[in-house]
Amino acid sequence: MSNTKYSWNSWKNHVNNCSDSYLHYQICIDSSILTGIENSNASYISSSISGENSNESGSFSTRTSTDDSDLTIRESSNDLDVTQKYRHLWVQCENCYGFNYKKFFKSKMNICERCECHLKMSSSDRIELFIDPGTWEPVDEDMTSLDPIEFNSEEEPYKDRIDSYQRKTGLTDAVQTGTCKLNGVPVAVGVMDFQFMGSSMGSVVGEKITRLIESATNQFLPLILVCASAGARMQEGSLSLMQMAKISSALYDYQSNKKLFYVPILTSPTTGGVTASFGMLGDIIIAEPDAYIAFAGKRVIEQTLNKTVPEGSQVAEYLFQKGLFDLIVPRNLLKGVLSELFQLHALF
């Protein structure tokens, strides 16, 4: 039995703001999100809570402190079955912890209907977001990672881990590349997928992006790279770091020699070698609202420099004020903004 403490006033406001249909379900809340404690078991919140001191018997029980400062939610042995029964109906927002009905979530572009937080999207969903239907032509989609340095791990072998993520995501690696049309304009597009090993950049990711840039150079196509990455792939050692220089070199020829137009789109999170290389080399750099963008993460900086990183200093809105990129564009406006940028570039 594990206990999860949650601010009573925050919980009360959250319940009052929920719709009646939403309260008819017994919904799982991952206690690791509420408390920040890893490896916590799931706790459940019954829809019948209606007052400040509600208590449930049977599979659910609550306790409030005398000063009304917190609510303790206790889990029972049969809660796991309830999770499996209802969790497929909802997507929980990582910002406000509100629930979005999964049936309509994709049509809303994975934007939370309560706080408008832009939640993570798969690479396939992002491709559908801003290209003309039926125009996607993938390139190098069969390219897959090997084990170039024979990485030894006490846990799962690297090759087995690659196979596991390929089955889970249906992708061969952490990026999809191809050509398509955007409002009738032919473009080359690369989209990173955070679901595949945190979209870490290994040899395959670097090679696919480099080939895409070279193809766009030869065909005189504008280029879009949607960035989302936890950094270089440690299982490939220095070979993963070489991808930064290889991609940057291809971009130099594309931009400086051929005078073509490159737009990176920074999504959450964009960190490590992707930020340090092609993520920041765009002619126009676009970020999504509230995107986490950094070279090194908050924890790494604090442990290395022994200094506290101010809250919000690695969020798109703050970095925009410091001139790190050019635009912050919500998803529902992205296709129109990109189309206008391409038309403007063509005039010059």
From TrEMBL:
Give the CC-aspect GO terms.
Answer: acetyl-CoA carboxylase complex; chloroplast stroma
| Location(s) in or outside the cell | Plastid, Chloroplast stroma
Cofactor mode of binding and number, as noted: Binds 1 zinc ion per subunit.
Region named Disordered: 51-72
Q: Which reaction does it catalyse?
A: N(6)-carboxybiotinyl-L-lysyl-[protein] + acetyl-CoA = N(6)-biotinyl-L-lysyl-[protein] + malonyl-CoA
The coding gene here is: accD
Compositional bias (Low complexity) spans? 51-64
Pfam families in the record: Carboxyl_trans
User: This protein is called what?
Assistant: Acetyl-coenzyme A carboxylase carboxyl transferase subunit beta, chloroplastic
Is Plastid among this UniProt entry's keywords? yes
GO MF terms, alphabetically ordered:
acetyl-CoA carboxylase activity; ATP binding; carboxyl- or carbamoyltransferase activity; zinc ion binding
Extract the HAMAP family matched here: AcetylCoA_CT_beta
EC number(s) given by UniProt: 2.1.3.15
Tell me what organism the protein belongs to.
Answer: Hesperocnide tenella
What InterPro entries does the record tag this protein with? Answer: AcCoA_carboxyl_beta, Acetyl_CoA_COase_Trfase_b_su, ClpP/crotonase-like_dom_sf, COA_CT_N
Q: What does this protein do?
A: Component of the acetyl coenzyme A carboxylase (ACC) complex. Biotin carboxylase (BC) catalyzes the carboxylation of biotin on its carrier protein (BCCP) and then the CO(2) group is transferred by the transcarboxylase to acetyl-CoA to form malonyl-CoA.
Cofactor names from the entry are: Zn(2+)
Taking every annotated instance into account, which residue ranges of this chain make up the domain CoA carboxyltransferase N-terminal? 89-348
